[in-house]
Amino acid sequence: MTRERLAAMYGVDVAYHSAPGVASPVPVDTVIAVLGSLGVDAGTDRAVRDALAAAEQHRSHALLPPCTVLTAGRRTLEGVLPGLPEGTQLTVHAGAGDALPETPRAPGRYTLRAAAPDGRTAHGDLVVAPARLPGPQGRTFGFMAQLYSVLSARSWGMGDLGDLADLAAWSGRTLGAGFLQINPLHVAVPGHPTDPSPYRPSSRRFRDPVYLRIEAVPEYAYLPPDAREETDRLLRRAAALRDNVLLKDALIDRDAVWELKAAALALLRAVPLSPGRRAAYADFLAEQGQALDDHATWSALAELHGPDWHTWPAALRDPRSTQVARARSAHLDRVDFHSWLAWLTDGQLAEAQRAARDSGMPVGIVHDLAVGVHPGGSDAWSMQDVLAAGMSIGAPPDAFNARGQDWGLPPWRPDALAATGYAPYRDLVARMLRHAGGLRIDHVMGLFRLWWVPQGRPPTEGTYVRYDAEAMLGLLALEAYEAGAVVIGEDLGTVEPGVRDELADRGVLGTSVLWFERDYTGENADRRPLPPSAWRESCLATATTHDLPSTAARLTGEHVELRHRLGLLTRPLAEEQAADAAEVAEWIALLNRLRLLPEGAADEEAVVKAVHRFLARTPARMVGVWLPDGVGDRRPQNLPGTSDAYPNWRLPVADAQGTPLTLEQLAASRRLHDLAEEVRRALGDGARTP
């Protein structure tokens, strides 16, 4: 029991529910390993007693935490600081000004001071989060797309930030779309080949320069003749690479794209910046500070020693070491090159959001925040003090995966985050919202708890580690409030009771996917499809996601055949097909009962429209249209459970026959226009007219 008490003090669960009402104990060795990663020795009874005594002494001595998070209108300061000695005086200050007369109710950042009767004093940050985020104005629809997959006639073999701005401007002005949700644009870990998954990045704090539109860099116009000639050769090679994808059905090759862009960027960097541009770059460097310096240094060192910092010379594994400082100075030109890339990318991101808002979009670009980072990448190197070494996040065993999941991503240390006043987390969220109208939080349940798997152990031998959700959500809400952005939480899968209610109370939208919306409640739950009136209002309603079959593939059963060819089925093909057909038939029957399918189920395009009419009939604040659904694409962008067997994250958007389509062809697609018109008409007064 003593070890259980110690585990509870650090938010480490000693049991979890593997099924409703079924509690499964966590192996003792797992609890010991997880506590060890938090700097707590729990290997022996004596060590546990000593650790408990040390923790209790620390808690009794500390008057204030580095950061106190209070949600406006929820609790008083005394309510969030219950352990203060009786008679302690609390005062709140706005900046360096005089003390405020009472607990502030206006969202913002303050300084909190405490004076105890025994003479002890302390001060720390006070963050007051808004009681609720307002969300989008009215109801709106928008597109969801993987940016790399949307190639234009001008891009260099994969979709880029110029394409993003163009897609946003066109869909907002022509179709009345209110937002454009895209995949994470985080910097990838370089490699041969590079891991194409946007959900396993090197850094979540900076965006990948592979998405740069080269011709949109202002210095492009001032290339000298010899550099212009070389750039023209690169343009011809880029055109061939693009045509190879679009005309010859090849896969998107981000390494080949980056090879060409890196060569072009080297030429562009030789063009002197104008005085105004030079001043803007200097301001950017000053604003980004240590975080950019770290990332650029890691990028330069990775070119020399490889992309996994664990394999670097020992002296370079500590970002604060003298040897790293010397290496930074020795390779200052490459460090500056990577800083310059971050500046260019930031500028083009700003242009894309400007184009979206100028088109009339009430939200604009919705960026995606991955749940973690690659253990060998930039963020893991520079933030070792707040990430748990030897641990990986994943998912426990459930009805869909009896072996659990290990995602290979190191988790935040909740104790280290709290000790820093949540500075790394606050910084990350602020950076993600910098040029965003909205932010999707991948696996939003991770703000409450994450499944930690000790290195070398199977996912079945992990445990949940809990975070201060009041602080994590409050800080997220304040940053979004100040940015005027909506927040969407990806809350699919196993969700702890109360989490969805808490998110909804704070104005964080959930994610509702058509095929998962069934009646699972009550003793007599029949698991039939939920009628639109039973859906929640506080959500983004969609037919599919990047990890699921397209709507056309779902309706035709082609996704089952694909999984059969790849050996992913757990039942005989005929049994899987029968179950899938029965599920689709249930939804078709509901669409018919609701008179949403007057064209009849034999018309695939009509059923896709009916599915989206259904989504628009729900009370959902946002309706998302998977862009490939607009042209009948059959292929998923990602097929979970595969790596080399399926070209995950490397497919361009294609039509129903599998022919890749350019952004220009998408914009001219009658099918896409008709689908958008159906959704806008079904939303009625809540939709924006272009």
Automatic annotation (TrEMBL):
It catalyses: Transfers a segment of a (1->4)-alpha-D-glucan to a new position in an acceptor, which may be glucose or a (1->4)-alpha-D-glucan. Keywords: Carbohydrate metabolism, Glycosyltransferase, Transferase. InterPro entries: GH, Glyco_hydro_77. Signal peptide: none annotated. Its EC number is 2.4.1.25. It is an enzyme of class 2 (transferase). One of its GO terms (molecular function) is 4-alpha-glucanotransferase activity. Belongs to the disproportionating enzyme family. This is 4-alpha-glucanotransferase. It comes from Actinacidiphila polyblastidii.
